[in-house]
Each structure stands twice: as C-alpha cells, then as structure tokens.
Amino acid sequence: MSRQADYVMRTVEDRGIRFIRLWFTDVQGFLKSVSISPQELETAFEEGMTFDGSAIDGYARVQEADMLAVPDPSTFQILPWRKDEQVARMFCDIYTPDGEPFEGDPRRVLKRNLARAAELGYTFYVAPELEFFYFADSGPEPKILDRGGYFDLTPLDVAHEYRRLTIRALEQMGIPVEHSHHEVAPSQHEIIIRYTDALTMADSIMTFRLTVKEIALEGGIYATFMPKPLEEHDGSGMHLHMSLFTEGRNAFHAEGSDTGLSDTGRMFIAGLLHHAREITAVTNQWVNSYKRLVAGFEAPIYVTWARNNQSALVRVPTVKKGKPDSVRVEYRSPDSAANPYLALSVVLAAGLAGIEGGYELPPETQANVFDLSDAERRQMGIQRLPETLADALDEMEKSDLVRRALGDHTFDWFLRNKRKEWERYQHHVSRFELEHYLPLL
User: Fold this and answer.
1) What is the CATH T-level fold of the domain 7-101, as seen in this structure?
2) Where in the chain is the domain with CATH 3.10.20.70?
3) pLDDT at 60 over 70
4) How far apart (Å, rounded) are the C-alpha atoms in residues 208 and 75?
5) How far apart are CA 194 and CA 98, in angstroms?
6) What is the widest separation between alpha-carbon atoms in the chain?
7) pLDDT class for 149, splitting at 50, 70, 90?
8) Is the full-model pTM beyond 0.85?
9) Distance CA 27, CA 70 (A)
10) Domain 111-141+192-198+224-428 annotated CATH 2.60.40.10
C-alpha cells in the first residue's frame, strides 16, 4: 500500500470518519458514487470495489458487467457540507476484472491524453471560468432570485451569501478559488478556480458542480449548470484558460513577441481553430448547448482568434507586466455542463495536433465578428461553429483526432448516445411552435 493510502487510513481513523464515498463519472459526465465503511477501505485500495458496469452509461455490456473502482488516495477530502457525521470522498480509476485500465473511463481518457503531452515534454495547466444559475426551484419555469448584472454588488445580488458559502466549502476541500462575481444575466453567477494541472482540475470541476448544488439545496434553492435556461439572456459557459509548461517554464511565452506568444503558443491556437468544429460536440454536448451558441449574446460562434476581442472563439488575454508565466490561451465555447475529462482531452489533443503538425496561425481578427456580413466572413475564411448538436456530431464522426483522443469505446458510445438525444429532441413540439403555428395553420 502507498504512503498516501496509509495517510488516508490513519486520517479516517483519527477523524472518526463514518463513510467514504468513492466517486467516478459516466461518459456523459454525471457523478457516480458508492459509499463504503472504514473497514472496507484497505480492500478498496488493494483490490478495488466491484460494481455493475452495465448499469453505467457508456461502460460495459451486460455480459461484461463486472468493473472495479480503485480509489486514488491523492484525491481524499472530507465533505464539508455534511454536518451530522464525517464523510469523505475519493475519485476512482476504473479497471476491468483482469486489472486492465478501462478505456471507457473518462478519467482514464484524460490521463492518456496527458501522457501524450508528457511524451512531448509538456504539462497541461487549466483554469476554468464556471458559470451557473440560481433559481427558486427546478421546475420547468425558471424563477430567478435577482435582477443583478455583471459584477453587481448591491441588494440585487441576493445570492452572494451562497457564493461565499460555496467558496468556503471548496477551499476546505483543497480547491482554491481565484474570485467570484455576479454574471451578466439575472440570477447568474461565476466562480473561477485557480490554475492547476488538468487532471486535478477535472476532478475539481466535478467537485465544484456538486458543491454548488449542495450549498444551494441547503439554502432551499436550486443551482443549475444548464447552458441556456433563460431565453432572452446569456447562457452559462466554461471559458478554459490554458497553458503548457515544459521544465518549469511556460511554453506559450516568448520574450519580445508582439502578442507575448511563442511559436508553440501560436501553433497550439492554430490547432484549436483548425479542429474547433470537430471537437464542439464534446465541449458542448447537449441539445441545449446550441441555444447558447447563437448570435446576439456573448458566447462565440465563429472560429477566430484575437487578443482583446470578446467575440473571438480563442482569446489571448493581456498579461501583467513581469509575469511571463501568466501567458495563456482562453478557449471560450465550452459550457459548464460538459464532461470535463472529455472536454479537456479533445481541447488538448487539438492544441497538440497544431504543435506536432506545425499549423500556421491565421491572421488575428480584430473586428467584431458579429458586425461583419456573411460575405465579409466568407471572404476572410471565417467558419461558424456547428449550429445544432446534430451538426456537431456530423463533424465529430468524421474526425480522426477526436476518435484518437477519446478512444474507440468512448467515441462510438458518445456518438450513439448523442444521436439518440437528438432524435428525442426532434420528436418534441416546443412552446414556440404551438404559440406561433397553432393559431395560424
């Protein structure tokens, strides 16, 4: 048993922890959990805990049901919202009964892509801007709690206390927060987690989403990461601030460059742009995701890059003087309901493809892309992101890059599952159709 596992065993005994929750995710990014007692912990570390993989979306067929969840002791944390008894959690890696890593485990998918980056000499760091809404309940008619706007610090922002409690809970679990604020839409909020390596960040995003919801429920309200719950307002994104480090140095930084970007950084952006359409089904995986990616709001819909231009898909934020390590690339299309393990995998794969292939970065788009005509965008070679989940899946299905990044098992299952989601949506008759067509036709 490792030193970290020994530490966990001692902590569980010393702190009187009653239950340990073993966490993992299905392919859609929904958190799964099994609780064990302290008496089962040593067995879990040494042998893993058996569960029925055929009951988990994207895992095994019925005839190959058995799976093993092996806890990662480095992810051990006590859950701060449980007041009645001490409960802890650990993320798990999933294995087959013969001890082989399961290729359909989203955490395994990300680990494999990070190993590929390491082979090239890079460590991948990420900081997400996570947006979400607070509503009075989870009913089909969203009831907002406030009419605050961007950065408001007034009685209009009645949910600042929920944000404060959420941040305190996150920090108690070792997830440092950079800052938080009210976002543009009514009842919309944003919390930014501090930069860290991509695997830790993916685990942190899963923990973040549950924490936000738990704190909201304690207050008698509901939190949602649905990309676009309010028709006339901005949706919730997950802007990804990313960089690659090599030998402790920011590989995106170049002294004297007009953008602050090295050739590596420029090729990484070129890879994101070149493969943007084919990775969108993963970074924006829900039917509702494409209600956010529309004109008239802040979400990007055109494949461009810029420095100080909020309409661009990829942005290079201004770097503070004397801080070369803060040079980074911001990818703005993902939404906060994406599976973070898969989303970070395809984004990284696209950037690395740009570096390995020596992709040339197209000219910076300084104009507001939304103000250009269709003819002007065509003349500039500016593509649009997919407009529906079906379009995005068509692009993904043709992509060798996404298949390699996800692996055959996850790639094929994801496509099948999302095709079914789109078919169900196609059968739905919306309120818009009833209100506009029923009186006329």
Assistant:
1) Ubiquitin-like (UB roll) (3.10.20)
2) 7-101
3) no
4) 14
5) 38
6) 71
7) low
8) yes
9) 17
10) no
